[in-house]
Every structure is written in structure tokens, then in C-alpha cells.
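Hi team,

Below is the intake form for Deoxyguanosinetriphosphate triphosphohydrolase-like protein from Fluviicoccus keumensis. Please confirm the fields before the structure is written into the shared record.

FORM ID: S-0412
PROTEIN: Deoxyguanosinetriphosphate triphosphohydrolase-like protein
ORGANISM: Fluviicoccus keumensis
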Amino acid sequence: MEDMQVWQNRKRNDDEGYPIKPFNSMNDDSQYQRDRARVIHSAAFRRLQAKTQVLGIGESDFYRTRLTHSLEVAQIGSGICERLKEAYRTDEEIKNWIPSLSLIEAICLSHDIGHPAFGHGGEVALNYSTINNGGFEGNGQTLRIISKLGEYSPAHGMDLTRRTMLGIIKYPLNYSQVKNYAGDYASSSKLNLDAWHPPKCIFDDEIDVLNWIISPLSDSDKQLFQLKDIKVGEHHKTKFKSFDTSIMELADDISYGIHDLEDAIALKLITKTQWESEILDQISKFTGSEFVQNFQQYTDRLFSDSNKERKHGISKLVGHFMYKVEISRNESFQHPLLKYQAVLPNQEQNILKILKKFVYNKVIKRPEVQVLEYKGQLMIMKLFKVLKENPSRLLPASTLNHYDQAQNKERILSDYISGMTDGYATKLYHKLFSPSIGSIFDRL
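The structure came back. Fields below:
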């Protein structure tokens, strides 16, 4: 209740881009430069260097972690904004609402800071463990970190500007509004959590933050922004996002579909034969795409024995999608930050979906990758259970203090565990459960 009142009463004078006026001068950018700096210097951001992106931490020094992925998303997001400024240089209203580089980088760098160790396996494990007390979802935890847990303000977390926070929110509805589980939690097996993937959302605990972020919008914009698609047998989904968020999501999709493809090719998880037989067959109908027209040239570079050639092919592919981004309008909204959306043309959008699905099926769903994700999932569940049953013995003093004062104590446990890196969670697990490992002199 105290946090709710803090956010309801919050006043800010630094929201240059929202709702007062569009970003239109270098002076306006100083607040977003500060936002970006606070994200970069935060503990949550640093921990991304030791959290799994797709392939497990420690398997190789070559492929991506959550940190390198976030840096690449920021670079792509900046490139998209530069491309849009050039493409819409004669349209004053659109040009003035395109985010500055500092703003889009702050948003892109933040987009994964709420994700726990061990990829989506860790996310599902925490959701299953807290399902009766608000659940867990990585994007929801991101908002919680920037608004309440970050180091820069006792009451407001990282204390970011309103527009930056709006851009970070991918799904503007809370957990209880979109959850729709098909299974029976009471009789489910803890050894198979496939039915317990979380909905895409923010937490009910942060509805006060969301209300503050969207408070300057008109009532009609608020209602439309928070509409959802009703699904049968699966979670409901939000329908809309802000302009800045749409740029960040495109950058994320491009990075996921292409940079993770690079990792898979370099580690020989994907062969040239698989690529040619499965991708070309699906994309050949998109005859207007430059990627399809020059598919063989891309293929030769991607699967070249030369690292430089492969990198050149990846860079060309990233650039192909970046320079196809355009802006659509939804006239149902009044505010420009909701009216405008960054989109890919249909052909490129479909091709990128095919690439993402290919990476998912050939890399993420590989048994070797799933074994590591599943192992991490079981460790997270067991850590949660033992910490919940022994908080006063096992929680650090600062965490225990928050735990004792909290109404939703499981939220404090998920804050603690989701902040762990892969290595920290593994060490703590072994210190608790491996008889021959652990000493009072160990430092996790």
C-alpha cells in the first residue's frame, strides 16, 4: 500500500518527450542520457553478462550472453531510428517523435534485465513456484527492477523518465488479467512444467507503476492501449504497444533471428544443407525480397570457412531488415506515441518469422540445449522451495529484512532468485545440496 501511494503521488518535471512535447532538441536528450547511464551502471545490467541467452554460459566464450544480446539490440535499435529519421525527414510530426539515440538505447539495453538465470527454463520455474501469489514473468520483473528495485532511488528504483518506462513495457496488462492456464496446477507434475509458461505481462504488484506511466494519456487511449485478445486454451495477449516499444521489439527480433543464427552456424549446430532445404523452400514465394533474390550469395557467406565472410553475411542480413523498417499509423489513438508504430513490410516480416522459428527449432529445441535448460529449471525450483521453508536461516540479511516486511513474501523470493546469474545459482545450489561442497569461507 505504501508503494502504491508513492507512485500515485509521484511528480516529474523531466518528461520532455511525454506527454508535454515531442523530442525535438539536443537539450531534451539530457534526461535520456541519464536514463541510459543508470541502466548501464546498474547491477541488474551487469549480471546479464553471466545469464544464458540461448546457449549455456561456460560452454564457449564465443557465443552470446544476455548482455551481448542487449548491446546488439541497442545498436540495431539506434540504426532503425537513424534510418527512420532519414526516411521521414520531411514529415515534421513523425520525425519529432522518433526517439533519440540515448532514449532508444536506454530502452533496448533494459529490455532483458528482468530475465532470470537459465533462460526461459528459469522463468517457467519461478512462475510455477509463485503461481498462487502473482506468478513470475521476465518482462514483468524488468518493470519491477526499473521502478522499485534499482539502486538509484529508495522509492522509484532506477528513477527513469516516464517515456523511457513506457518504451520498456511490452505488455501493458497485469498478470491476473491475461493468465489463462489450461492445466490443473494441483495435480501437475513438478518434473514437467510445459503447461506453466507465464503470460506476457506486468505483475499485479506494479499496477500502480503502469497507472502512473499512462496517466497523461486520454481515457480513450488508455482503454484502447490495454485491450487484449481473448484466447481459448492459452494465455490472453495484449494488442498494442508504444511507438518506442515497437522499435525495440523489431531490434530484438532481428537480433534473435540473425545473431543467434550466427552462433548456431559457427558452432555447427546448423548445416548448409539444412539451411538451403528448409529456409529456401519457405521463403521462395516472397519474390520481391532482396534477400530471396540474393539467397545464394547470403548462403555462401554465412557458411563460408572464413569468419570474416560469415560476419559480413550476418551484417548484410541485419542491414537488410533494418533498412526495410517503416512507420504505420493507427488513427484510433490520439497520442503520437501510440498512433505510430515501427513495422516491417509483410514479406520481410514473414521472412524474419521463418528465420526465428528455424533458430528455435534447430537450436533451442535441441535435446542438448533442453537438457541444460531443464537442469537449470530444477535447480531454481529447489532453491525456491528451500529458501521459502528456511528464510531466516538462508536469506541474506538485507533480503530477509524485505521478506519480513513484505505482504507478498514470494515476490521477494523471486526478486532474490531472479537476480542470480547462472553461476551464482549453481554455486548456491551445490553449497546447499552437495555434501562435499561448501565452506563458511566460500564467497558466492
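SUMMARY LINE: The radius of gyration is 22 Å.

Thanks, M.
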